[in-house]
Amino acid sequence: MTYFSPTDLIINPDGSSYHLNLRPDQIPDTLILVGDPERVPTVSHYFDEVTEKIQKREFVTHLGLLGGKRIAVVSSGIGADNVEIVMNELDALVNIDFITRTEKAEKRSLHLIRIGTSGSIQAHIPVDSILVSTAAIGFDNLAQFYGFDSAQSMPEEVLARWTKAIDYPLPLYAASASASLLSQFASLNAYQGITLTAPGFYAPQGRTIRMHSIRPDFLSKVAAAKLGEQEITNIEMETAAYYAFAGAMGHEMISLNAILANRITQEFSQDPEGQIRSLIEKAIGIIASQNRP
Fold first, then answer.
1. Which own/partner pairs from 8-17 qualify as long-range (CB within 8 Å, at least 24 positions apart)?
2. What SS3 class is residue 14?
3. Angle separating helix axes 239-249 and 80-95, nearest 10 degrees
4. Superfamily for domain range 24-291
5. In this predicted model, what pLDDT tens digit does every residue of 22-66 receive, in sequence order?
6. pLDDT digit string (tens) for 183-200?
7. 164, burial (CB in 10 Å: exposed 0-12, middle 13-18, buried 19+)
8. pLDDT reported for residue 148
9. Strands 173-176 and 130-138: what pairing?
10. What is the rounded distance in angstroms from the CA atom of residue 99 to the CA atom of residue 115?
11. Which of 3, 131, 194, 263 is the most exposed place for a label (fewest CB within 10 A)?
């Protein structure tokens, strides 16, 4: 039986996880994940009741009830590195005994729903639409430290041909959304596509201000290159990491994207907050309908 040391699994004096500041008894089966801490109250506003509010650094959690069942919304902050913290600690909270510091024999699978923003990299996917990520490709460096083989969603040779086509030599990883959650959120009537998860907001997403990118044609190459028969539809900073960890750990995960920009037509939403709020309302409505008998 594996024992997790106090420096590997850091537990606060009150029995909570180091960064999220949550205890094992507080974790519901369904959690909504957002990037912006200020978006947490926007989500919890639609709960039937908010029972607890917890904050540590950028990690803000509201716990509550929706349709008679427990639910939570947690903020991760920006980027795959923060996702790595959130996913490791959520998994530890439900699958490690915090008293004995050993792995539980019976594993628990969480339902995780990311509600976030993204930019389209295809002209036919307009601003102010919704896109569900069926799969995602990670350009961050997590694949250099984790074995994501169990989360792989496409043949390695297909991914290898695609990375050659976009002239990108570094290792990537790919992972898929939960089939059951894709079915649950089918009523969104959203676009579906493969999401690219970038390790930054500016040059890694094809933006230039004063610092010039050494890959100025990166975004156009990604938009044009087919991954087998499929195109890359949008770009953001968290989805691939969420999918890879969820797939490897045995959790159900889906990423819902409010498309605020079209990078090809160079349009940006006139009402970005209204668009993300609309997506939150629709997602909460679907979750509530599943919860109520």
1. 9/92, 9/96, 9/101, 11/98, 15/98, 17/89, 17/92, 17/93
2. coil
3. 20
4. Nucleoside phosphorylase domain (3.40.50.1580)
5. 999 999 999 999 999 999 999 999 999 999 999 999 999 999 999
6. 999 999 899 999 999 999
7. exposed
8. 78
9. antiparallel
10. 33
11. 3
What whole-number distance in Å separates Cα of residue 135 and Cα of residue 40? 25
How distant is the alpha carbon of residue 147 from its chain centre?
18
Read off the tokens for 89: 């600690």
Residue listed under structure tokens 């040391």: 5
Q: What is the predicted pLDDT for the residue at 293?
A: 65
Q: Encoding tokens for residue 209?
A: 């201000």
Largest Cα–Cα distance in the chain? 55
Model confidence at 71: pLDDT above 90: yes
Position 289 pLDDT exceeds 60 = yes
The torsion angles phi and psi of 252, rounded to 5 degrees, stand at -95, 130
pLDDT confidence of residue 10: 98
Structure tokens at 165: 């086509």
- Pick from 215, 120, 234, 204: which is nearest to 167 by CA? 215
Quote the pLDDT of residue 115: 98
Question: What is the per-residue pLDDT across 139-165, written as a single tens digit (0 to 9) for each?
Answer: 999 988 998 765 556 777 888 889 899
CA 237 to mean position of chain CA atoms: 8
Task: Please state, in angstroms and rounded to a whole number, the distance separating the CA atoms of residues 204 and 211.
Answer: 12
* CA–CA gap between residue 236 and residue 282 (Å, rounded): 21
